[in-house]
DNA sequence: AGCATACGAGACACGAACGTCTCATCGATT
DNA sequence: AATCGATGAGACGTTCGTGTCTCGTATGCT
């Protein structure tokens, strides 16, 4: 009956991904515990969201590790990143919109590190001559996030087949980032 | 002092674009009227959001008209669409996230028409041989929305220069959509 | 068996935002 | 000048989510 704190975070992420406005009570019910117990684990909604932010960063970090961003062809590495990050899309979208509500400047510093890892991948591709240099790594990173979440929503709404999601995302992203001579 | 209903909608759109959680009172203050008067124009928050949805659709429609989506080279038409829609990015992002909270199925039917107009442009490009056919028009439409809003956020956060916004968006989108032989 | 810890259920107060209403005032029209 | 309509200010009740608390119970450990 009693859940590990980590599992608790997992189900909270699930519920809030489905409906970002879910109340503490709904989250507790979904986890099979009472609201009181949820409060015993997390002081309040803020604390829970902060913990979820940590979880998201850990998961994304793990995804980047699994994608081996520093190995092999940069384009292939991007493909692996998209494939690894795709299951996290909905959850990350929740965190982003949640961050949007906070005051600017107090965002979790962990995001910068993640951004830097992805941007470094694009920069490597530019240095190796695979990616065009007239699009900045920062923009390509932003576009990667945007396309992954867009693909997740499109799948959820039935506008894109789930099995095509990763391919569509990667093809559009790489097609834009790849230099013409590499095609 | 007294505002036209249309101007009222405009400032409401502005305020909610900046902070999607703004209260009715904040919206009224920003428009220079009282909460009571705001309620005289719009029965409630729901009604206001619906009216804003209409406004967004009208603006986007006008943007597509101005972009002359059915004229000339499809790639150039896409460029014009992005340029025309870019100023609407923040506002549209608000509407999308607001729609996300509604129950599925009760979304404004106007969106389908807009989607169809943009998808038709991509389909035309495919028929004319300018765009690759392994990415569906529906996905390219989705990607267009996603990249425009991503660019707006990136500009707002200082990660992309405002004057590069349209170019970066178009280059990435077209680079991905354009067939390799067209490069 | 005894005890400690964690849990569920529920009650309570607080705050925020909403929707409704009243009333006084201001301005424009006639 | 008189009147009508729209407005601003504010009070009021309601709803919803939150955070805190208590109390009875169950689970698990010694």
Automatic annotation (TrEMBL), chains A, B:
Q: Which residue intervals define the domain HTH tetR-type in the entry?
A: 2-60
The answer to whether UniProt assigns keyword Kinase to this entry is no
GO molecular function terms attached to this record: DNA-binding transcription factor activity; transcription cis-regulatory region binding
A Pfam family of this chain: TetR_N
Per the record, the domain of life is Bacteria
Q: Which residues bind DNA?
A: 23-42
- Keyword check for Transcription, yes or no: yes
Q: Which Gene3D superfamilies match?
A: Tetracycline Repressor, domain 2 (1.10.357.10)
Tell me which InterPro entries the record gives.
Answer: Homeodomain-like_sf, HTH-type_TetR-like_transc_reg, HTH_TetR, Tet_transcr_reg_TetR-rel_C_sf
Write the record's keywords in alphabetical order, separated by commas.
DNA-binding, Transcription, Transcription regulation
Q: What is this protein called?
A: TetR family transcriptional regulator
Q: Recall the taxonomic lineage recorded for the source organism.
A: Bacteria, Bacillati, Actinomycetota, Actinomycetes, Kitasatosporales
């Amino acid at each position: 009956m009693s859940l590990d704190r980590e599992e608790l975070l997992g189900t909270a992420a699930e519920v809030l991904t489905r409906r970002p406005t879910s109340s503490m009570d709904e989250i507790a019910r979904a986890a099979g515990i009472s609201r009181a117990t949820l409060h015993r684990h997390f002081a309040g909604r803020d604390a829970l969201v902060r913990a979820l932010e940590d979880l998201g960063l850990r998961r994304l970090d793990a995804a980047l590790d699994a994608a081996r961003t520093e190995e092999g062809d940069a384009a292939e590495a991007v493909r692996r990143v998209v494939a690894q990050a795709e299951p996290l899309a909905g959850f990350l979208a929740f965190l982003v919109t949640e961050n949007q509500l906070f005051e600017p400047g107090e965002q979790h510093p962990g995001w910068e590190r993640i951004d830097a890892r992805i941007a470094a991948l694009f920069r490597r591709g530019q240095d190796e001559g695979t990616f065009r240099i007239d699009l900045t790594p920062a923009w390509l990173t932003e576009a990667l996030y945007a396309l992954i979440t867009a693909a997740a929503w499109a799948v959820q709404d039935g506008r894109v087949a789930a099995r095509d999601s990763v391919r569509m995302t990667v093809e559009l992203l790489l097609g834009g980032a790849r230099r013409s001579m590499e095609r």
